[in-house]
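Researcher: I'm preparing a figure for a lab meeting and need a structural model of a single chain. I don't have an experimental structure, so a prediction will have to do for now. The sequence is pasted below. Please return the structure as tokens so I can convert it later.
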Amino acid sequence: MRFSFASASSKLPAEILAAISADVIAWQASGMSALELPFTGKDFADILAQAEHELRAVLELPECYRILFLQGGASTQFTTLPMNLAGEARPCDYVLSGHWSRRAIEAASGWCDVRVIASGSNGSLPEPASWRRSSDAAYCHYTSNETAEGLQYHEYPEASDVPLIADMTADFLTRPIPIERFGLVYASAQKNLGAAGLTIVIVHEDLLGQAKHATPASLDYARQAAAGSKVNTPPTFAILVALRMLTWLRAQGGLDAAAARNIAKSAKLYAVIDADNFYRCLAAPRYRSSVSVCFRLPQPELDLLFLQEAQENGLCHLQGHPAVGGIRASLYNGVTDEAVTALADFMSDFKRRRG
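Model: Understood. Here is the structure written out token by token.
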């Protein structure tokens, strides 16, 4: 048995793999593979409509929000956001909390006047109450889960007169979201919603129609909303995988149940880490992520030995982010309790032998 804890493309549930394997052979009564369905046809239109229906249902999403099914990943949204929302000269507030929010700030700086309103340090996140939010900003952006450092906001910021924007790529659909506090939420799908290639953007309709003059049509939220996410060819198969995942997620009890599962999975690993001083988690306890568990061993040489022996025992993709190092176990929706138990047992055994 092999278990993947990859941060990039996550494990998919076995029943999802079985369903999409059948879809590749033939999509329902179409007589065609799901890979062959034209995005302009009725079969794909039905898939897209079902995916939106399921996502609205699982999030209890009000009608005033539009869902866009786009390509390009969260990194593309780093620049697409200011193109669409910053206007021609308005500043934008950003919270610097780790590697990915830094990437968002660097990308946005070429398109708007970025104001860093709070910064984290020493394994901590800046609390929303300490953010110096500007009254004249076009929006306020933060990253809900920093995968490289293993940090997560467990409480959502309050809304204000300035639209709140969140990059939720790592923890999207792992817990309930008070969506009414947000002007826009975006997330890549490959961690908790299926396959790489799809990016979900949920945007309040009041924020549409503000794009800079030179914004390309495929990156213009209003034009994509008007075209039903079909200004350019949408990632058709990734949207089908997302539909399968959304149906599975609802059958598993929805977001409340997902949150309980993720807290329980991460608690198993943190219990081993906190048992003594062999493993070290640099994230302060109140900010430890329930989906990105990062830790280190006493010496870097042991990190390498841990990774080697874990791989030999079928525990794969545990290398920390290249910018940070160490060990990282990503516990997204498709990662099973069996996999986490196997990792926790291996960690205890490794400590007994090498500690």
